[in-house]
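Table 4 source record.
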Amino acid sequence: MEIHIALAPERLFQLGPIAVTNSMFTMFIVMALIIIVGNRIARNAKLVPTHGQSIFEMIAEFLLELVESTGGKRLGRQVYPLVAALFIFIALANYTGVLPGIGTIYLKESVPAGEHAALEVASVATAPAIQEAAVEGETNVPGRLAVFRPPTADLNMTLAMSVLTFVVVQIAGIRAHGPAGRIKHMAEPVFLFPIEVISEFSRIISLSARLFGNVFAGEVLLGVIYAMVSAIKIAVIPLVLPVVFIGLELLFGTIQALVFALLTLIYIYLAAAGHDDHEAAHTDAHHPAVTPGTAPAGAAD
């Protein structure tokens, strides 16, 4: 079995000025699946939920409790759509890495010999042939393009989601404190302001690199395991060993989705810190809580 590993996404076709890569193609499939299934569940929702509706409601309730317990009820419900969307999309995108056909269905293509490196074919059997053809000056050499690839195994995808998180965090901070208040909130004390700015931008790198590194490493690990078990062929090892690693990848995929969504929630909460607390205190001052056995002032009248 040949191992095909490419760090960069591979271009499948050109759609006007947009180059559609294998990771982008899989992303469209995941997005379509989320929209179709979500729309179907929402339209067919029943008072006595079906199995699919129960699973969806369980996930939604878990995420709602998570955001409310972390950021408070008011802020939690505001950011809930973003956090839930990030978690569901990243989790499903991570799960695609263990589906049959991901990384094993290829398109054959011939390219000019001088451009064979762009294909990033890391196959033991085909790489020497490509090198020999390039040395001999042949105009075309065979290449293989993986049709499907996990979207989160593409640094472009994780970087885009990290930039989205960064923008939302800044908007939340400005809405809570105003432009001047946002700067003042970051400059307490003043000499820490440059560090705070660097810290804000470093989150883009940390969020994108963490998710990309874990998913890409899992993709490579599964490819190596598949190649090993196909060569061993002893008893039930080819059946049992991949199942163990597939289970671990599903677990790690869920954890990475939860980490990304939870960090997004925490960053938004930190940017808007103090705003909701002030409003809550203001509300409590005008509407004091009534404890059992007591009555509000004026009730005796």
